[in-house]
Amino acid sequence: MKTKSFFLTPQIHQYILDHIDAPDALQRELIEETEKLGPISMMQIAPEQGAFMELLVRVCGARSAIEVGTFTGYSALCIARALGPGGKLLCLDTSAEWTAIARRFWEKAGVADRIELRLGPGAETLASLPRETLFDFGFIDADKPGYRSYYEEILARLRPGGLIVCDNVLWAGRVSDPAVADPQTLAIRAFNDFVASDARVERAMIAVGDGLAKISKR
What we know:
The chain has 218 residues and is an alpha/beta fold. Helices cover 39% and strands 20% of the residues. The longest helix has 14 residues, at 96-109.
């Protein structure tokens, strides 16, 4: 299995995979089907990220969640499985093609009734939601220039103590290289800097996969 943890040797990465809750048969099937899409399959979260997020959602007792950037549905599957009784997950994405795979696997996993998928620009969909407490947990894994907007919209609708998790905050190490100045890197670098100084939240960054930011609303 390819690693997104650019900072780990293959041996250490395999050791981690051998010592976490491994993907079950359905998750492995989804991973394999996503890999058939080619290089774009790297957009799927790593198994160790999925295991971490599933545990995080369960521990924080989330019953209402949102994710921006669903792709083929692996992250949504992990989140939906961990939600409390009556839990609901709202998924936002722009691709009918990729999310068709997600829908099929959600059905197989028996979690389709917990997930609502809305197709369209994420920022527009978020802005259309009632501006009141709606969510316990949010996951952002979409276009990097949009992170700040998605973060603000979700934070405004997150309960105190609720969590937002953001993927790709290490961006294969490019965020720490001042010589790298492409738009994607600049966007995620600026987002990280903003969150680090945001008095509305508490935050941690962990080197799992391509880096996860864990952000708690005060």
